[in-house]
């Protein structure tokens, strides 16, 4: 180990001039005095990625990190679905199943969802609003570098289990007390509950990261806009990112406090969440006061991506732009007033319950407004079914399923039957897989030419879409049916003495089949991305989507065009410089939304 470190030190010292490297950043006050160096070349290789404060590089780092997390979370769920092929404990034990279940949820929400959205925000918001970089480039880098230790801590239980008696957490992603406070798992003889402590600390890192990122997005959109971007023509994706950042600012610090309180309960003898103290239900209030806004933190930017990309392939502007913005803001405000709809079955005061039912039903209205606007944008449009468009249309369709099932559970009498069944799992996956993941794919395909300078393979992308669309609907529709049959969530086995055992078995197998279809689709996607990035010919066309024809050539494409022109006038021999040097922004040269 010592030799290895010495080797790294020698290698670093041999890299010419790396100490004098000045980050490529303009804009923000903190680095203003260095803007004279802004056109220095970047160092190459690993050092570039470790030291970068360029928003585009950080965006790519966020993206790579999130996709790795997506793969890890995906492998976890494939193991779980394989176990569920048969009603008895067959392949993995139920303890391990519980650990996978916990980690799958945490990984997908905190290590994939939030960072993946930040990836798009980092790369494209400065380009869309004509800023030179994020407002605080260095804070931006710190926010990203909080994430790898966060992931290591969240997964720590799995990483150390072969060597110690530490078990990965088995609390489910909601970490309900008293279980997570050390009653039950965690205090079993011979088993250390440190896995839970690690996970809580890891979550704390991701929360800090998200909060710093949110402050940066807000500051960038408010203070660093180019002179041609104002509130009236700010694009819809930036609007949703702005609202989402506001939600993060109020929700994540609360999660952070609750996590600290739980850590204190577990390790220092406090009683915030114990029966003799604040009571276990207190955790549910704090958690869901964060948790419900969190689901919109994960849904608003995807809605923004649909609103942004869908019109580009419909040959017309987004229908009712203002109403999409208003509904975004309305969802942002209302999302803080519905948290107790996750607690209808806990025995809280029925009067409180009723008011939460009302607000939950109300929040469906702005969501439906968006669906209406997307549909009317499509209606009579000149549709071009490219891969990003297919994923947008698929996302709208899936979101309708997710939204409508949400309205059912918002009604108390229905929820009392469906709560904690697979119906709930179906509901939120229709949104998290069906909307969030779909729009992530749409965004990556749409901007692939900007990020890589290449075009993906269109045939593979279509395969990816259809496998993902079919897989999603098989998997999660079967889950809705399982829920109606009363199948409880979070169980590794399902041998019932009563009830329609046979149908439940078949539906579980159908669900697993759907998951495997999804897996095949994602393998095709990863192959397409890597292969196209390395081997596809460099794209000569500045406008691969023919956006100019319909007057939708937005700022980020304008920036890309200037970059390519700079590359040509430079003689093009130093491609790396041209790629990273955006050239001087020419105000007003590009159309805005
Ligand atoms: C149309 C608006 C929506 C309504 C009325 C709604 C309603 C509900 C209700 C009442 C529950 C609790 C059910 C129970 O546990 O018994 C629930 C669970 C959930 N919803 Fe929604 N929802 C809506 C939209 C969304 C969106 C947009 C997302 C995600 C981006 C989402 C994600 C979730 C998640 C993750 C859970 C389950 C949490 C858990 O227990 O693990 N929902 N929803
Ligand atoms: Cu909720």
UniProtKB/TrEMBL annotation:
* Any one GO biological process: respiratory electron transport chain
* Gene3D superfamilies assigned to the protein according to its UniProt record, in alphabetical order: Cytochrome c oxidase-like, subunit I domain
Q: Does the keyword Cell division apply?
A: no
Q: Which GO terms describe its cellular component?
A: membrane
Listed A to Z, the keywords are: Electron transport, Heme, Iron, Membrane, Metal-binding, Respiratory chain, Transmembrane, Transmembrane helix, Transport
Compartments where located:
Membrane
Q: Which InterPro entries match?
A: Cyt_c_oxase-like_su1_dom (IPR023616), Cyt_c_oxase-like_su1_sf (IPR036927), Cyt_C_Oxase_1 (IPR000883), Cyt_c_Oxase_su1_BS (IPR023615)
Q: Which Pfam families match?
A: COX1
The residue ranges crossing the membrane are 58-80, 106-129, 141-161, 198-222, 242-264, 295-311, 323-342, 354-373, 385-408, 428-451, 463-486, 506-527
Q: How does it sit in the membrane?
A: Multi-pass membrane protein
Q: Which family does it belong to?
A: Belongs to the heme-copper respiratory oxidase family.
What protein am I looking at? Cytochrome c oxidase subunit I
Organism whose genome encodes this protein:
Halococcus thailandensis JCM 13552
Give the classification, highest ranks.
Answer: Archaea, Methanobacteriati, Methanobacteriota, Stenosarchaea group, Halobacteria
């Amino acid at each position: 180990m010592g030799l290895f470190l010495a080797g790294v030190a020698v290698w670093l010292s041999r890299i010419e001039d790396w100490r004098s490297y000045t980050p490529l950043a303009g804009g923000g006050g903190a680095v203003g005095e260095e803007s004279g160096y802004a056109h220095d070349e970047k160092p190459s290789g690993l050092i570039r990625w470790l030291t970068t404060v360029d928003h585009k590089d950080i965006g790519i780092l966020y993206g790579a990190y999130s996709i790795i997390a997506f793969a890890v979370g995906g492998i976890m769920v494939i193991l779980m679905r394989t176990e569920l092929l048969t009603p008895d404990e067959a392949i993995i034990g139920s303890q391990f199943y519980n650990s996978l279940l916990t980690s799958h949820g945490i990984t997908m929400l905190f290590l994939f969802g939030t960072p993946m959205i930040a990836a798009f925000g980092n790369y494209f918001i400065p380009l869309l609003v004509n800023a030179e970089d994020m407002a605080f480039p260095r804070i931006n880098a710190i926010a990203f570098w909080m994430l790898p230790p966060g992931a290591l801590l969240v997964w720590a239980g799995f990483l150390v289990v072969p060597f110690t008696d530490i078990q990965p957490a088995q609390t489910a992603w909601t970490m309900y007390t008293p279980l997570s406070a050390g009653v039950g798992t965690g205090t079993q003889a011979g088993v250390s509950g440190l896995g839970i402590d690690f996970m809580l600390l890891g979550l704390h890192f991701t929360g800090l990261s998200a909060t710093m990122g949110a402050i940066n997005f807000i500051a960038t959109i408010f203070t660093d806009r180019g002179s041609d971007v104002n509130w009236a023509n700010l694009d819809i994706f930036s609007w949703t990112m702005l609202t989402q950042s506001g939600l993060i600012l109020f929700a994540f610090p609360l999660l952070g406090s609750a996590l600290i309180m739980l850590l204190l309960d577990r390790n220092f003898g406090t009683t915030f969440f114990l029966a003799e103290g604040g009571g276990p239900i207190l955790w549910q209030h704090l958690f869901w006061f964060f948790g419900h806004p969190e689901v919109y933190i994960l849904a608003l930017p995807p809605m923004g991506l649909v609103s942004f990309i869908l019109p580009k392939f419909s040959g017309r502007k987004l229908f009712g732009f203002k109403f999409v913005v208003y509904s975004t803001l309305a969802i942002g405000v209302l999302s803080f007033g519905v948290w107790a709809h996750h607690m209808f079955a806990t025995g809280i005061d029925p009067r409180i319950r009723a008011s939460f039912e009302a607000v939950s039903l109300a929040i469906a209205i702005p969501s439906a407004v968006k669906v209406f606007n997307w549909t009317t944008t499509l209606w009579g449009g000149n549709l071009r079914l490219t891969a990003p468009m297919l994923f947008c249309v698929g996302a709208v369709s899936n979101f309708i399923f997710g939204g409508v099932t949400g309205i059912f559970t918002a009604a108390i009498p229905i929820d009392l039957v469906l709560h904690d069944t697979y119906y709930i799992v179906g509901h939120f996956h229709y949104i998290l897989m069906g909307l969030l993941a779909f729009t992530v794919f749409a965004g990556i395909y749409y901007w692939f030419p900007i990020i890589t300078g290449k075009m993906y393979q269109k045939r593979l992308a279509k395969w990816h879409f259809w496998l993902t669309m079919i897989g999603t609907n098989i998997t999660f529709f079967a889950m809705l049916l399982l829920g109606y049959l009363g199948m409880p969530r979070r169980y590794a086995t399902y041998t019932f003495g009563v009830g329609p055992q046979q149908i439940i078995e078949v539906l579980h197998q159908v669900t697993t089949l759907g998951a495997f279809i999804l897996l095949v689709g994602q393998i095709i996607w990863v192959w397409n991305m890597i292969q196209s990035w390395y081997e596809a010919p460099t794209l000569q066309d500045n406008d691969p989507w023919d956006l100019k024809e319909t007057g939708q050539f937005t700022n980020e494409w304008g920036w890309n065009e200037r970059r390519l022109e700079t590359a040509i006038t430079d003689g093009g021999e130093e491609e790396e410089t041209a790629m990273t040097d955006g050239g001087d922004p020419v105000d007003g040269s590009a159309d805005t939304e």
